[in-house]
Amino acid sequence: MHSLLFDWPYAALILAVLLTVVLILQAHGLGPAAWRNPIWVLGWIWPMYLFHMFEEHGIDLLGRRYAFLAVLCELIGFPVVSDCPATPAFVFSVNVIACQVAFGLAFFLRRTRPLVAACAWGIPLVNLFAHVLPAVATGRYNPGLFTALVLFAPGCAWMLWTVRRSGVLRPGSGWRIVATGVLTHLVLIASIELRTRALISAAALVVVNALNGGWPLLFGRENDRGVAQT
């Protein structure tokens, strides 16, 4: 169980590399048009976020292993990790279950349900600010900040430009992407607060956050049109 809870970032890194290879091979078939093809662009959310997870929970830029949990606990007022309502099981449920559901859906449904895939991008879009704002406020690096800046910021801008240009995201529908990211993070924050107040059990905290990856299906439900691969 210890290896499952603490060593999963290494499996995430391997999967990120494999998915990157898959997308690069797909790009060869699409040619230069790949860079503006929403099907191809939307697929990058999965490997991109897996690389981010490795910086957060694998080894960060300061060489610390599994560093994000301690930073999170300190942020919510628990400098001693063993006293913190956020546990390794909670981190596992968020990253290994909920996020893989959301990004796996985005990857596999990007041809037939492209808006579902686009909505999943709301998670890194909001998570970017979850890393940048604390860094600005404290003047300190936090685990995941580097990949948030170099992957999430340009990646989300690229995705938004592509889905708007291709018609996947219709005028006035951008709120769906933002709502997906905001609600995913609100559920996470609220569940930790409820656990802090002993209003839910540790098991409930894990279950709630494991189910938190389904928002893209809700907000992307009105668009079931595939996208031409040109």
Write a concise keyword list for the protein shown above.
230 residues, mainly alpha, 11 helices, disordered C terminus
Brief sketch in words of this structure:
The chain has 230 residues and is an all-alpha fold. It is 70% helix and 0% strand. It contains 11 helices and no strands.
3D structure, described in words:
The chain is mostly helical and 230 residues long. The chain has one domain. The protein is built from eleven helices and no strands. Helix 1 (2-30) packs antiparallel against helix 3 (45-58) and helix 5 packs antiparallel against helix 6. The protein is globular and about 50 Å long. The relative contact order is 0.15.
How are the secondary structure elements laid out?
Elements: H1 2-30, H2 38-42, H3 45-58, H4 68-75, H5 88-109, H6 114-120, H7 122-138, H8 145-166, H9 174-196, H10 202-210, H11 215-219
Helix pairs in contact: 1-3, 3-5, 3-8, 5-6, 5-10, 7-8, 7-9, 9-10
Largest sheet: none
Global mean pLDDT: 94
Count all strands and give the number. 0
How many domains, as an integer?
1
Low-confidence stretches: 226-230
Number of helices: 11
Terminus-to-terminus distance: 46 Å
Large-scale geometry:
globular
Tell me the β content: under 5%
Q: Rounded to an integer, what's the Rg over CA atoms?
A: 18 Å
Structural class: mainly alpha
Order of helices and strands: HHHHHHHHHHH
Classify the helix fraction into a percent range: over 70%
